[in-house]
Amino acid sequence: MTLSDKQGAAAELLPAGSPARGQRHVELDLERLAQMGMVTHEGGRTPAAEDFRIIKRPLLRNVRGDSPSAIRNGNLIVVTSALPGEGKTYCAINLAMSIAMERDITVLLVDADVARPSVLKVLGLGAEAGLMDILINDELELADVILKTNVPALSILPAGRSNRHATELLASRSMSTLLSEISNRYADRIVIFDSPPLLITTEASVLAAQMGQVVLVVEAEATTQNAVREALRLLDSCKHIDLIYNKIKAFPGTEYYGYYE
């Protein structure tokens, strides 16, 4: 693929009339998200909001160096699962929304599930250029594809166009450079990655190896112990792994999250 081909491919994902350069703004329907049970700034003290206040606190302590030893790249947090359907995207978005409520932090939510991206779909947004487009096109800049939202501290980096060489791209020097840029450009930035499931694609373990913290979502009464053990084996090089025990049935018709370090 030539450079002009790459530019054209990325442009196809940008709406007609979009500026060629500069950050774009999108409106999240916060009322719709609240009705879906998501964490929002205006959603009040819902069970999900309270759960993610608990979930985010140790992650933030690691980012800020409040723990006994500072974590390298602690502000890079990947949310993954062993298998599809365990709620990792739901948890990644809620975690990003909750952290964005902090007074002194900005959040970048990255859809890194490049084979089956769903962050924009869950948020009610259409397809956009994003992560994969930056990795294959040196002419694209981060500011060209980051979406600024109506949540003041929250921005989104879409997955972009799917690519059959996604694993190699995520393990490339270009990805390492990009991670350094998005994590170090702003001292107050935390980056949340929605990753592919670990047991389905190789991209997940490649991505997790470059993160400072890993959050593994486990579906209650569904994910087998063998699947969890195999997922943890694939994360063997990751030193800081936390588990969210998701979809626990507390009372008929209700669900909540459990958190384990």
TrEMBL record:
Its EC number is 2.7.10.2. Residues 1-22 are annotated as: Disordered. Keywords: ATP-binding, Kinase, Nucleotide-binding, Transferase, Tyrosine-protein kinase. This is non-specific protein-tyrosine kinase. Residues 77-236 form the AAA domain. Belongs to the CpsD/CapB family. It catalyses: L-tyrosyl-[protein] + ATP = O-phospho-L-tyrosyl-[protein] + ADP + H(+). GO terms for molecular function: protein tyrosine kinase activity. PANTHER family: FERRIC ENTEROBACTIN TRANSPORT PROTEIN FEPE, TYROSINE-PROTEIN KINASE. InterPro entries: AAA_dom, Bact_polysacc_biosynth/exp, P-loop_NTPase, Wzc-like_C. GO terms for cellular component: plasma membrane. The keyword Cell membrane does not apply. The keyword Glycoprotein does not apply.
